[in-house]
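SEVERITY: medium
COMPONENT: batch folding queue
REPORTER: lab tech (J.R.)

DESCRIPTION
The queue accepted two submissions in a row. Attaching both inputs and their returned C-alpha cells so the on-call engineer can compare them side by side.

ATTACHMENT 1
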Amino acid sequence: MKVSYQWLKEYLDLSNVTPEALADKMSRTGIEVEDVSIPETGLQKIVVGHTVEVVDHPDSDHLHICQVDIGEEELSQIVCGAPNIAADQKIIVALPGSRITGNVKIKKGKMRGQVSNGMICSLGELGFSEKVVPKKYAEGIYVLSKNAVPGDAVFPYLAMDDAILELSITPNRADALSMRGVAHEVGAIYDQKPVFPSFELTEDETDSVENYIKVAVENSEDALSYNVRIVKNVKVAESPMWLQTKLMNAGIRPLNNVVDITNYILLEYGQPLHAFDYDQLQSKEIIVRHAKDGEALTTLDGEERSLTSEDIVITNGSIPVALAGTMGGLDSEIEEETVTVAIEAAVFEPISIRKTAKRYNLRSEASSRFEKGINPATIVTAGDHAAALIAELTGGTVVAGTASETALEIKNSVVSITLNRINGSLGTSITIEEVMVIFERLGFDVSEKDGLFEVVVPPRRWDIDIEADLVEEIARIFGYDNLPSTLPVSAARPAALDDKQRLIRHTRRFLEGAGLSQAISYVLTTPEKAAQYMMRESEATQLEMPMSEDRSTLRMNLLSGLLDDVSYNKARKNKDVALYEIGRVFYKEESRTLPIEEEHLGGVLTGSLLEKDWKGQPQKVDFFVMKGILEGLLAAYGLTEAITFVSDNKREGMHPGRTAALYLGEKEIGFAGQIHPLAAKAYELDETYAFELNVQAIVEAEKEPTIYEAIPKFPGMTRDIALLVDETITNQQLVDLIYKKGGKYLINVRLFDIYQGQNIEDGKKSMAYTLSYLNPTATMVEEEVSKAFDKVTNALVEEYRVVVR
C-alpha cells in the first residue's frame, strides 16, 4: 500500500511530523513502513513550459522545432520528437544542465542543424513507471493543466514533492488498505481525530433508479450487500491533475474521469467499485449468481475466459458482464461514448474471490481487498461519494435512489477485558486512566467498572474480536519500546530425562557405535508404501488436501522410508549403507478422531559395515550381523522378560527363509530379516537386511535395575563341545537346554563353528560350542566343572539325540 503524505495531511495535522518520523513511528506501532520516497529526488532544473509555436523540422519527418516560454524574457527553442507535441500546451521542460531520471544530464545541443536548449519530457523521463503513465500520454509527452505557470518548478504540479510511504500490510490489518484507515491509525499514534471532508450528493428527484435497474442476488452468502447507483448525462474525458497525480503516486494508471473516480474511492475508503456503461448492459436487471460451467466472458484485458461454477458473476439477467470482485467485462467498459454510468458498490464472499483471482491470474487492488475484508459501514457511503464526484467531474446527474439487495447487518462488536488481564499479558502496571485514553485514541467507545472494560469496536476494525486483540492494540499504542524487558517468572523444576528419552538416547549411541547413521524420513508417503511392513492391521490416514500424491498418507512403518533413503544412496554409487531411524508411525481407529501415534525403531543395512583396507576384504552384512547388533542393543535395555527370535516365513515383503519375529516374553515387538529379493528389486537394491521394533512396547516393559559388580578376582574355566545334530534343530534350542542344565556357574555359551558337507551325513550338521564357567567367590575345581559339563552332555543326548564328537 502506497500512502501519500500530503493526502494524509488533508485529514490530520502533521505540520510538526516529518515523513521519516511518521514512518518510524508507524513501524514501531505495528504497521511496517518499508520505504519512504520522494519522487523528485535526484531531479534538477525541470520547469513548466508553454509552447508558443511548433513547426516541423525542415530536415526530419518526425522532429518539431518548438518555441517555448519558460518564464524568461525570451523564448527558448527546443527540438522535440514527440508525436503529440502541439502549440499552446503546458509541458515539462528539462533546462540545459538539468538532471532527469537515471542521473542523465541534459545539455544544450543541435539536432539536425537546429539548436535545442534543453528537452521536452515525458513522465517516463521523470521516473514514472510505464504502468502508471496515463494511456493518453503513453507514447508521447505529458501535457500539464492550463493553470500551470511557465518557469515554475514542475514537481508541485505532478505531486512529485510529496513523500510516498510504502506500507507492508499484514492480512489481519486490511483496514489499513485505505487512506481513511491509515488516517485512523496515524490519528491514534499522535492522539488526533481525523477529519474527513464531507461531500454533497445532489439527486434528480424527477427520475428514479427504478426506471433504470433492478438488482437481485441468488445466494446472499455470495454478496451480502449489492448496490447500484445511476449517473446520467456524463461526459467521459481526462481527469483533472489532482486526481491523476493521486492515482499515479499510489501506483494506479489514470484512464478517464469515471474509472479514475472509482479507483480514487478504492484508495480513500478501501471499497472496490465498478463502473458499467449502462447502455451496454442491454438490460434493466442485474443478477448476481454463480457462473455455469463453460460459460464465457471476455474481460477488460481482452481475454475470453471459460468460467466454472465456483466463480461469482454479475449478469444482465442472462449473460455475465463481470467477474465479481475481480474484473469487469469488455462489452460494458466505460468509453468516450458512454453517457450513462451504473456504479456498483458491493461486498463479495472472500474465499470465492481469492480462488477466482488465482484461477485466472487476475490479482488486483480490488480482489486483494475483497479477500482480506472491507469496512461494511462505508459500502453505501463510498458508492454515494463516487456518484457525487462523477456528477461533478463529468457534468452528469445522479438519479434518485439506490438499487440495493442486502442481507448485511452493520453493527459494532463488544469485547470485554480486565485491567489484570492487560497488565498480566504485557508485564506492565498501566492504570485504568491510561487504558481509557488509549481506547479513546483508537476511536473505540469504552466503559469501565471495577477494572472491567467494555470496549465497543466500530466496523472499520473488523480484525478485533477477542480480548487478545485488545491487548495487542494497547501494546501498540502504549509503545512496544515502553514494555518492560523482564524475563518471565516461573517455578524452577529440575531438568531430567524421562524413561523414554533415556532409552532413545541410549539407542542412538549404541547404533551409531555399531556403524549405523541416523536418517530422518518423510512422515507422509504414498498409500502403497504406507501399508508395507506393517506390524499391526490398520486403515491408512489420508490427508484431505495433500500437496502431492507422493505425500498424501501418514506412514504406518519406518522401513519404506529407509529403503527410499538407501535407494537414493545406491543411485549415487554409495553401496555400503547402514541407516537407522527413530520416529512415529500412525495407526487409525474408527473410534478415534486422531490417529494413534506409536514410536518405532527401524534399520536397514546393505553392503558392508567396514571399508576395504590393507588387512583384507570387507565382509558383507548378513542376517547374523544384524541379529548381533539387535541382541547387543536389546541386552543393554536390561529387560526382565526374555527376547526370543522366532522364524517368520509369512511376513509380506520379507525373505521367507531369512526373517525372524522378535518376541518380548509372549508379545511380538518387531521383526528382522532380509528384504525379499522382489521387493529389493522394486527399490533397485542389492541384498538388503532390515529390522523394525516397537520402541513404545520396550519403554513400557519392566526392566532389571542396573547393578554394578566388581571384576571377579577368581579365574574361570571353559569346555568345548562339538555336536552332530539333525539340521532341523536350531541353535536357540541347543543354547536354551545348555543354560538350563549347565548349573549356576555357567555364565556364557558361544557357538564358534557350524559345518555341513564332506564326512557329515545328509540331514545332519556339526555345531561346536564353548561353555564358560565362573565362580565369583572362589576358585573353581576340575571336578565341579566336569560334573556340570556331564549333565549338559547327557541332557543333549537324551533331548535331541545328539552325537558328541
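ATTACHMENT 2
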Amino acid sequence: MTNLSRRTLIAATAVAGAAVALPSPTAHAVGAGAPPAGAASRGNARPTVIPALQEWAGGDGAHRLTPESRVVVPAQDAGQLLVLAQQLTRDIADITGLKLAAPRAVRRSRAAGGEILLRLDAAARHAKGGDLYAREGYELAVRADAVTLTAPAYSGVYYGTRSLLQILLHDEQRSRVPVGTAQDWPNYRLRGFMLDVGRRFFTPGFVRDYLRVMGWFKLNDLQLHLNDNEIKAPGGDWSKAYDAFRLRSDAAEWEGLAAPDGSYSRADWDSFEDTAALHAVQLTPEIDAPAHSRSFVRFRPSLGLDGGNSDHLDLAKPETTDFMKAVFEEFVPWFRSPEVHYGADEYTGPEAQYRAYFNDMAEHLRSLGKHPRAWGSLTEMAGSADGYDRDVTIHSWNNGWYGPQAAKADGYEIVNTNDGLLYVVPFADYYHGHGLDGRYLYDSWEPHVFPGSESLTPGDPQLRGAMSAVWNDLVHATYTQQDVHGLVEKTYGTLAQKMWSGSEQGLTYGEFTALLRRGAQGPGLSTVTPTLADPDELAFGAAATASSGAHASYVSDGSHVTCWTSVAEAGGPWVRVDLGAVRHVGRVRLDWGREHGRSYDVEVSDDGSAWRRVASRQGLERAGWDELEFGGVEARYVRVRGRESGRVRWVLWSLQVFDVPDLARGRKATASSAETASLGAENAVDGDAGTRWASKYTDGEWIAVDLGEERSVRRVLLDWEAAAGRDYDVQVSADGGSSGWRTVAERRGREEAGVDVVDLPSVAARFVRMQGVKRQTEYGYSLYRFEVRG
C-alpha cells in the first residue's frame, strides 16, 4: 500500500474575582467558543461535542451533577450495560473530580432525580438516521433533574456516554449539562484507522489506549497491519532486510515465525478485543500476502520467489497457498471481528496466479466465518475485475492501482483509504511525513472525496466509509510510538468529525482545533500522552513542582483530565513550572477544580530562588477557568502561590503559561507563489502547526504578513517543513514594499528544517517578510508557522 510512494509518488502527489494591579492583569473567563452555526435560536445552544451532534433541540436551564448523582441501568439491560455504567462513573471522576455513588440496576426505565439512566430500546429509530441510527445512533435527553440515554444497540449507548463526558469537559465548572434533547448517528458505517505494527512494534498498552481514543471520537474500526518488511533488500539480499510478524502462537509448529523484537500473545490479543468491545470498536486484523511477505519467506524459504531471495510468495506452488491458509486457520480463532483483511496488494508475479490466490483466500476466510477485506490492486494487476471474487470489501488506496470509480463499477463495497489524502509515513519526505493536512481535511474532505475526478457521490451505498493509515516505512529511523501519536493526534478529531457528521460542527477550523485541544484524548489512558499544545503555550510538558500533594506534573502535561491535588496548607499551597530557559511570558491560565484558590499571586523567577510578583487574584468565588494577563516579562520559572487565611487545599487541572501574543496570527498574509491553492500563505499565520504554506519550486520566493498597524517587532519565528530555506532574509516595511523593504536579519547556510528563531533589536514595522535567496531542496520554500512577536 505504500510501495507506490517509492516509485511514483512525486508524480502522483464572567470575571470571578477582582484583580490587583501589579501591573494590572486583565482577567476573564475562557469560554468554549461561540455556539455553532445553525444552533437553535431559542433554548440552550447545541453543546460542544467532537464529532458534532447531528440534531439538538435546546431547552432551558441545566442538569447539574453532584456527589449524590448516580449512573443506573434498567435491570433487563444490566448484562450489557452495567460494566459500561461502571466505566462511565470512573470517567466522570476523571473529568469532573466527582466521586459518584456506585452504579446499580433499577426496575424501571425512567430516570429518577439525580440519575443518569443508560437504557437499550431495540425498537428505537430515527427517520433521518435510518439503518445507521439503528446500528450506532442514540438519544441523549437531559432534564433539569435527570439524564436519560437511549439507543437501539450497545454502541449507541457507548457513544452517548462519550458525548455526555465531552459536554461536561467543555463546561467551565465541569458539572453542568444543558437541558435539551440530542439525536445523533453517523453518516458512514466504517470510520477507521489503520496502524502498521508490522514494521514497527507498538506496545500492548499503546494499542489499548488507541482503542479508547477511537471510542472517544466515535471511530469504530482499528485495523492492525500485522506483518511487513523493509521496502528494499540491502544490496539485493533479502536475508538482511528487516521483517516482522507480530502474532506469537504457542504451537510448536509456528515457533520462529513471530518477530523477536516484539509480538502479541493470545493474552495480549484478548486484552485488545476486550478493550475494543467496551469502547465500541471493531478490531480488524490484517495478515498481508502474497507481497510484503518476507516473514513468511524467512520462515519457509522454499515458498518465496527467486529461491527465497524475495519478499514475494511463489504462487506457482500449491503448497504456498496451503501454507497461508494454515496461517489463517491458526490465528483466525483469536479474532472476534467478523472480518479479516488479507492484504493482496502490489504483487508482481503472474496475474493468473495472483487471481487464483485472491479468490482462494477470500473463499477460505468465508469458510472460517470471516468476511474478507483486501487492498485494491486490480487495475494494476489485471486491468479489470473479470474473474475476481466480488464478495470482498476493497480498500481503495490509490487511484492508479484501483480507484473508487473502477471498484464501484465492478460492484465492490469500498473503503476510502486514499494514499494521497489519508496516508502518514512518519518523518518521511513523502506521504504526509509530518501528519495529515488538517485544514484541507476540515474544509474540503469527507469520506466520498478522492483525488482527481474519482470522488463518489456523498452517501454512495457502495461506500462503506473511510480509514486513515500510518505506514512505518522507515524501519531504521529512531522515532517512538509517542512520536507517531504526535503526528496522528493533530487530525484524529478532524477525521472523526468528517466521518461522523460531516460539516455539522459549524465552526471555523481555528475554532474547531481550539476545542479539540481541550478534549483531544479523553480519560482512562495509561501509555499515550497529549501532544497538542495551545498556540504560544510555554509550559506544555514542562517540569512542575509543588508545595505538597502528588502529581504536580499533571498541571503541565497537556491533559485536561488529570489534576494535581495539594494537602491542606496554612495560607495556601503553591505550584510552579520550569520553562527550561528564560522565556518571554505574558499570561497564565488556570483551570481550577472544585477546591480552588481564592486569593493567590502569580510570581516569576529567573533562577527559582528570587521571585517577583507580576499579578494577583483576590476573591475568586468559583471553580473553573481563570486567566491573568500581565504583559511581557522575562522568566524561566512561573509560580502560583496562595495567600489565604486558614488551611487551604487546591485541586488544579492545569497551569498554562503563554508567550506574548503572536502579532501575525490571523492577519493577512501574501506570498510570491503557492504550490497549490490549499497551501496558501494564510496557512503559515493561522496558529496551526499542522498547516503550511508552500511556494513554487524556485529560489527567491517570499512570504509577507501585514500586522495591521505599525508595531514594535522583537522576534520572528520560522517553522520550516523539510522544504526549507538555506539562505534567506527577514525584512520589514512600513507600507508593504512601495517604499522598499529593509533587511533586519540574514540567515545563510542553514542545512536543517524545523524552527528558526530570529531575535531582533526593537524594530518598528507594519509588514514583515521572509525573502528567500536559496532553497535547501529541489522543492520550494515551505513554512508551518510564520510568527512575529512584539
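NOTES FROM REPORTER
The mean pLDDT is 92.
No errors were logged for either attachment.
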